[in-house]
Write a structure and sequence with these properties.
The complex is a heterodimer of chains A (about 800) and B (about 180). Chain A has about 800 residues and is α/β, with parallel strands linked by helices. The model of chain A has no long low-confidence stretch (mean pLDDT about 95). By secondary structure, chain B is of the alpha+beta class. Chain B is about 20% helix and about 15% strand. Chain B has helices at about 20-45, 85-90, 130-135, 160-165, and strands spanning about 65-70, 95-100, 115-120, 140, 155-160. Classes of the chains: A alpha/beta (about 800), B alpha+beta (about 180). The interface of A and B includes residues 114, 218, 220 and 223 of A. The structure holds iron/sulfur cluster (4 copies) and FE2/S2 (inorganic) cluster (FES). One iron/sulfur cluster (SF4) binds near residues 91, 127, 128 and 130 of chain B.
């Protein structure tokens, strides 16, 4: 449903005339437009419509004999409201006295103390005395609701917020209230721990200290800490966060609500993986390989050695850049490679380059949808990605759109999606056949024959037809949320063309409220491309003077000895690149591997000659670009741990030693220069970005985005999906928990995934595999082990494995067909 | 206009400008005698020196000296639960509390949490007593000890152990009506 049109009504609050949008709840309108606070407990606009569970918000409205709940009454024209009469005061005092009847006097030992809405409301609106002398209710406490959350049931005021979050926001349906009356308590429906990708939000959302974070337990009081606003760079969703810092340590991560990015929620990775900043496993000093083992060395020695190795390799150096790199680091790395070393072999896209023209067409400002568009569009097509794994917070946005705004959710993916049950229609296709699927869909929309394309995609023609019919009927505003996977690999260009044709077919170019939204593989992939960390583009997506090798070719060239050195900037090719075998060979052959890393991931541990400690995201400064083109600013929140140094400075220093000084004295100098050099960033500055960032595609300077060829393109026939023939098709995915930060965080380590082999019940029965058994997946002599996971929704003839986990990663196998058997 | 330092000099008058003959002589001599009268008058009153540090002035019961942390007499557990309220109340920001959780094996205080670190920087403390007022458990009180000088600033950061220990020498208390 398109965005509601705002219509103003005027009402009177405590004698003052106030204008507010019709339909807004009185409690919100009073605070926002009338500067009158109506105390609330259970209500918050971001969980959706009110339930009126706590009665804290009672107000008098003229013409209505009884007091009304201010959170549940929408403002109307001519309404006259009183929030400060003796009646209201008496009601507020009575409600607070009632709520406090069973509330223990725990404030000194309660983690919420000092930032507790119950304390604030009791202080601001309470009577100060209680007449209740009888015993209070008692529960066993404190208990672990999950390894991450502690629950203290005595403190619960039964406001329903946590239960509603679980049932209506994250829709994991795990939390419930059991029993009745004074015996009511919060629990999971089956008594198992509450483990879900977004569970941590309830610790921030509970208005009392009933649900608290276990990693933060008793760490600090609000007055012991400072809040430092920055951006989470653990995934492309780039949620706005606020670090609680005490003694130069991050103790907790809270949401810094931003409607255009995260809607005020965080996933558990973003909320708890801060622990990885302060673990011993983190690399905090430079290291060099000495007798086969990495040993700490001084900075001088490390820089000197790295410079020597690089100047020796010269133009025979390649560079892989990971998604956590900031734009500034990207600019400096490109300078180091292109100016100082004379090499164009740098890439930030895993699996191979895309034609620069197509990349421009896909990033064109007129074609970009924004995150809030997901919530208000007529229809959203999720294409070849899994939001909850790839950019978790968008999963919540899509659910909100479906639940509250009538968005029609359509899914086209290989692996069953967590969103399937909310979708109007889901279609499956064979892994890696996104190109054929998109082509089939646009053919169907255009009324052309699509059966052969659907067959090539390994999809059901009726499914494609149904999806197309839904899309056609939905309305104009359509957002396609697509995964980078669609345009990666050897047929990436064809995938991009098919996607652009589909967008053209739907008329998305220049449409308000619709467009394309990519979920890239790395956090800052979009920014890195825009500042020219690509083999075929220089800064501002301009043509590179000479095209270099892409990531796949860098691997091949290293293996063949054409390149001799490689820089791994926050990138571990054994985890991030599609083929481990190639990169094992490549890194084995390379004479110099220079890594910037925070953890000893496989490639660093086995192959790096020089390792520089990478800054964590709380220590970094610079800018990143959200997939919807919002340029956001990272701010340094804590001092760098150990011997860690600023990486932009290190890259500048290396370039200077190699004979081309980028003359970067501060990071903001690099930012300023970048804003000048990228034509479509023109006029931006760090000050302008401030705390909320700016979507460059909405500014005037976006007009200077390089022009791109217009769709439709003619497509060559996509290759047909491999037919299983007794074997199984190999599909891969990267779990939300597959990251070194999760593995290193003590509180999250229990979630760090082991390989699991997802197959359908029919295949499992055919192969005689039981759920939870050890199985081996093999192809061409390589094999991977994992636990069998039988999923009823998994398509027959396909097996799904995880990538980016050390050891048994799917990247070890060569597709498209694999053999699965019991080990 | 530039500031001219010479213009800012204010003349200070330190006494009569002129000695002034006999009147002046009287002023100098007579006033000295008047002063000496006070001096000799005091002689009559005897010696009133207190031989500090051998002798100490007794303090009033409400005297706010160096803080003390307390334990429960029966269980020996610390009264402080590490709630940090004292640190919040402290106007000179000289209390540092880092809390931790009690476990059955390691029970330090009576509540769920205890102060793993409790430090008062006495070189910044102004002995206002707000911390004592803020404490919900009477875990911290202002003691009577006032001999706090030290040769090293960092030695003035009192740790939990120092604050829990009985002061070595007790300051005498002023008796009723004294
Ligand atoms: S646990 Fe917290 S959020 Fe949940 S019902 Fe109780 S008070 Fe509300
Ligand atoms: S969704 Fe992504 S950006 Fe947001 S908190 Fe989680 S990891 Fe961080
Ligand atoms: S006496 Fe006053 S200044 Fe000293 S620690 Fe207590 S609150 Fe702080
Ligand atoms: S001394 Fe009292 S106020 Fe201070 S932390 Fe301990 S219990 Fe809290
Ligand atoms: S806030 Fe209105 S009833 Fe709870």
């Amino acid at each position: 449903m398109p965005r509601p049109v705002e219509k103003l009504v005027s009402l009177t609050i405590n004698g003052n005339e106030v204008q507010a949008p019709a339909g807004m709840m009185l409690a919100d309108a009073a605070l926002k437009y009338g500067d009158v606070e109506i105390p609330v407990f259970c209500y918050d606009a971001k969980i959706g419509p009110p339930v009126g569970a706590c009665r804290m918000c009672l107000v008098e409205i003229e013409g209505i004999p009884k007091m009304q709940a201010g959170c549940s009454v929408a403002v109307t024209d001519g309404m006259v409201v009183h929030t400060d009469t003796p009646t209201v005061k008496a009601a507020q005092e009575a409600v607070l006295e009632f709520i406090l009847i069973n509330h223990p006097l725990d404030c000194p030992v309660c983690d919420k103390g000092g930032e507790c809405p119950l304390q604030d409301n009791a202080f601001g609106w309470g009577g100060g005395l209680s007449r209740f002398v009888e015993p209070k209710r008692h529960f066993e406490k404190p208990l672990a609701l999950s390894p991450l959350i502690a629950i203290d049931r005595e403190r619960c005021i039964l406001c329903y917020r946590c239960v509603r979050f679980s049932q209506e926001v994250s829709e994991d349906d795990q939390l419930v209230l059991e029993e009745r009356g004074a015996d009511t308590f919060v629990t999971t429906f089956d008594g198992h721990p509450y483990v879900a990708p977004f569970s941590g939000n309830i610790t921030e959302f509970c208005p009392v200290g009933a649900l608290t974070s276990r990693p933060y337990r008793f760490r600090a009081r609000p007055w012991d800490i400072e809040q430092a606003g920055s951006v989470c760079t653990l995934c492309p969703a780039q949620c706005n966060v606020s670090f609680s810092v005490r003694d130069e340590r991050v103790l907790r991560v809270l949401s810094r609500e931003h409607d255009g990015v995260d809607d005020g929620w965080l996933c558990d990775k973003g909320r708890f993986a801060y622990q990885a900043i302060h673990v011993d496993a983190r690399i905090t000093e430079p290291m060099m390989r000495d007798g086969g083992e990495l040993r700490p060395v001084t900075w001088d020695l490390a820089i000197e050695t790295a410079a020597k190795l690089l100047s020796h390799a010269g133009a025979n150096t390649g560079a892989l850049v990971g998604g956590e790199t900031t734009n500034e680091e990207g600019v400096l790395l490109a300078h180091l490679m292109r100016e100082a070393l004379g090499s164009n072999d740098l890439d930030s896209r895993p699996g191979g380059a895309l034609e620069i023209e197509l990349l421009r067409a896909l990033s064109a400002p007129t074609l970009q949808a924004s995150v809030p568009d997901l919530q208000y569009a007529h229809a959203v097509l999720v294409l070849d990605c899994e939001p909850v794994d790839d950019a978790p917070i968008l999963d919540l946005r899509l659910r909100k759109g479906v639940r509250h705004h009538g968005v029609k959710l359509l899914i086209g993916s290989s692996r069953p999606s967590a969103l399937d049950e909310r979708a109007a229609h889901s279609a499956r296709f064979a892994p890696g056949c996104g190109e054929a699927f998109a082509a089939a869909l646009s053919a169907e929309l255009a009324g052309q024959p699509s059966a052969s394309l659907a067959a090539a995609a390994g999809a059901d023609a009726d499914d494609v037809g149904a999806l197309a019919a839904q899309l056609r009927e939905a309305g104009d505003e359509v957002v396609i949320l697509w995964g980078e996977r669609l345009t990666a690999g050897p047929r990436g260009n064809e995938g991009a063309r098919a996607l652009l044709n589909l967008a053209e077919q739907l008329g998305l170019d220049g449409r308000d409220g619709g467009g394309l939204l990519e979920i890239p593989s790395g956090t800052n992939s979009r920014g890195l491309r825009e500042v020219g960390v690509l083999p075929n583009a220089s800064i501002g997506l301009a043509d590179a003077p000479t095209a270099g090798r892409d990531s796949q070719q860098i691997g091949e060239a290293l293996a063949d000895g054409d390149l001799s050195a490689v820089i791994l900037l926050h990138s571990d090719p054994l985890l991030d690149q599609p083929s481990s075998a190639l990169w094992q060979r490549a890194l084995g052959k390379a004479s110099a591997v220079i890594a910037h890393a925070a953890f000893l991931t496989p490639a660093v541990l086995e192959h790096a000659n020089v390792v520089f400690p990478a800054e964590s995201y709380a220590e970094k400064e610079g800018t990143v670009v959200h997939p919807d083109s919002r340029v956001q600013r990272l701010r340094r929140s804590i001092s760098r741990q150990g011997e860690t140094r600023a990486e932009w400075a290190l890259l500048a220093e290396l370039a200077a030693r190699l004979g081309s000084d980028p003359k970067a004295l501060t990071c903001s100098m690099v930012s300023a220069r970048m804003f000048e050099q990228v034509p479509f960033y023109a006029g931006l500055s760090l000050d302008l970005l401030g705390g909320v960032g700016i979507r460059w595609s909405e500014r005037e300077a976006a007009a200077s985005f390089p022009s791109a060829p217009a769709a439709p393109f003619t497509l060559d026939a996509p290759p047909a999906a491999a037919s299983p023939n007794g074997l199984l098709r190999l599909g891969s995915f990267r779990s939300i928990w597959a990251s070194p930060e999760v593995e290193a965080s003590p509180a999250l380590a229990f979630l760090h995934p082991r390989q699991r082999v997802e197959i359908s019940p029919a295949d499992a029965a055919r192969l005689g595999i039981n759920h939870g058994e050890n199985v081996t997946v093999a192809s061409n002599g390589d094999f991977v082990e994992g636990l069998a996971h039988i999923r009823t929704s998994a398509p027959d003839g396909t097996v799904f494995l995880q990538t980016a986990i050390p050891g048994d990663s799917a990247a070890l196998l060569e597709g498209p067909l694999v053999e699965v058997k019991r080990s | 206009m530039a500031w001219d330092p010479d213009k800012d000099v204010i003349e200070v008058i330190r006494g009569p400008q002129k000695a002034g003959g006999a009147g002046g002589l009287y002023r100098a001599f007579g006033e000295t005698l008047r002063g000496l009268k006070t001096t000799f008058g005091q002689l009559r009153m005897g010696v009133d020196t207190i031989q500090y540090p051998e002798e100490k002035i007794p303090v009033y019961p409400r005297f706010r000296g160096r803080h003390q942390l307390h334990r429960f007499e029966d269980t020996g557990l610390e009264k402080c639960v590490g709630c940090s309220l004292c640190a919040a109340a402290c106007p000179s920001d000289c209390i540092r509390v880092v809390a931790a959780e009690n476990t059955p094996e390691n029970r330090v205080s009576a509540g769920e949490r205890y102060a793993a670190v409790y430090e008062i920087n006495l070189s910044r403390c102004i002995f206002c007593g707000y911390c004592e007022i803020a404490c919900p458990f009477d875990a911290i009180t202002m003691g009577h000890e006032y001999e706090l000088s030290d040769a090293n600033r960092s030695d003035l950061i009192f740790t939990k152990e120092m604050l829990l220990a009985e002061p070595l020498e007790r300051t005498p208390l002023r008796a009723e009506g004294e």
